Amino acid sequence: VASRVEARPESLERSIEHIVHKMTKPTTWGLLYDSITEEFAFRCKCAAQSLRASHAVVMDRLLGLNMSLKQERVCLPIWRSSAKFMTDLSKLRASNNDAAFYESLCNVLRQASVEWCDMEDLTEFMDDQLAPLETAIDNFRGASEASSGAHTPHVRDVGRLMFRNFCLLDSHVFRPLCLAAYALVHEAKAVQGERHGNNIVEVLEGFHAMLVSCDVADDHLSASKNTKDAFVENLVSPISAAIEQLRDWDIRGQSSRQLP
């Protein structure tokens, strides 16, 4: 019995390889690609639901705020063109909220980062099992993208794209997530150099790593929507500029960005 148990993982691995090779023939690899995309999308929708359910009170509070994302983005105190009268126009500026509220915002961003890490672990595992599919994608890209300009991502980037589209850009997550990040930028800037401010910057840096990872090209093979531009405009660019402003001076690369 012991010998059969020890041989089980190897036999399962051979079975996976056999199925993958059968599913990556020229006539069937697209079906496998779509199936994996759908599986990733479902898991990311579950992550969005978990994020909403775990932080329902603060998410509902942020959703209920009558604010313009564009105005709040412009009023962030991290652009080279920022002026005090502009930042004072923000309804998210530090003086309007309390410590407990900021901690709840940090928890929202922390869980978003945790959900992303779980997705990264899954896509890494899938990537290791799907080498023939990666080859099929490469062949398809070589044959079509040079002439059409269409983009078909590899498995790791499919997972990141689905996380962006179905978790971060979920209709009940995206706006609260943006406002939570913007409010933390205001608070971190107001208490920059203090322990509380350093803790917020640490949360923002983890959140920023997730955003940069999810800043992948849109998929023109699947039916997913083009979301890269809105994602970059509302999250990647402002949070990248905030990190440049708020991190320690000796490791900061360059001064804050100009408002895009």
- Count the DSSP helices: 11
Radius of gyration: 21 Å
List the uncertain runs. 250-257
Question: Alpha-carbon distance between the termini?
Answer: 65 Å
The tally of beta strands, per DSSP, is 0
Overall spatial form: elongated
Mean pLDDT: 82
Structural class: mainly alpha
Encode the helix/strand succession as letters.
HHHHHHHHHHH
> How big a fraction of the residues is strand?
under 5%
Strand count, sense and barrel status of the largest sheet are: none
The share of residues in helices is over 70%
Description:
The protein is an all-alpha fold. The protein has 11 helices and no strands. The relative contact order is 0.15.
Describe the SSE topology:
Elements (H helix, E strand, L loop, with lengths): L1 H22 L5 H26 L1 H8 L5 H6 L9 H4 L11 H31 L1 H18 L6 H14 L5 H17 L4 H19 L14 H19 L14
Main features:
single chain; 260 residues; mainly alpha
Task: Give a concise summary.
With 260 residues, this protein is mainly α. Helix content is 71%, strand content 0%.
